[in-house]
Write a structure and sequence with these properties.
Length: 282
Amino acid sequence: MSRSRLLLHEWLCLGFFVWMLVQLVVSAGFSNRDTLIFLALLAANCALVYFLPHGGNSDLGWRLRLLFYPVAMNLLYFVLGTAIPAIHPGREDAALQAVDRALIGTNLSIRMEPWVHPALTDFFSFCYMLYFLYLILGQFSYLFGDLPVLKKYFAGLFSLYALGYFGYSLVPALGPYLAMGDQFGVPLGGGWLAAMNEKMVLSGSNRVDVFPSLHCGNALYILLSDYQHKRWRFWAYLLPCVGLWLSTLYLRYHYFIDVVCGLVLGWLAWKMANRYLKEQPT
């Protein structure tokens, strides 16, 4: 594998697979389920990078190679729920709370309690749930579009995934809604939208996915990419995206530092993808 053949996210995803594999072998053993999953991901990634694209149909080869990342990294999210506790027992919510106090002197989810209203809870829940649809549709709309744009989009987005998952492995945390539940004096309330969102989060979270906020980072990255390539979708999603960023605090899912780091990573991923792809051969 030569450097010219690997895109930015491929380097970072390979690095994350190796990082987790080594730690899992040490802490859980080679025969552990999660160890074997990371070994399989590493082998599959290396094989795809080595063999694709191949022959005359480089366009199809590239698309098949890139398709690995939305499948692997989205499914891997659930594996991290057992893999990360195996290498990093405990949670770092207290440390993240301390960082927030040092930066802004408070916890923003608690400070937002005077805003709490059922209609606002439903609105923010809608914005939070819309993210998942936007994330998935965005990946596949670019997958079947222009190949250089697809390379750039995936290079940035899945670099962001790799960096975010690396953050989860170093600073696993539950988030304010679980770690600080006894400190909230006002229930969020809301209607069926809020109830659906709460059920989805409680059943779907891997319980380590707080720092950094990939909801914020991914949303900003998609928004910037759509402004560049799909301007109509940028304007359609702009308000829900702002609502999403606020929802992570209002709904008590993230700390302030999670949101800041997620947004910074989203912007850096977009900048790096634009710059890196200019240096790569098509």
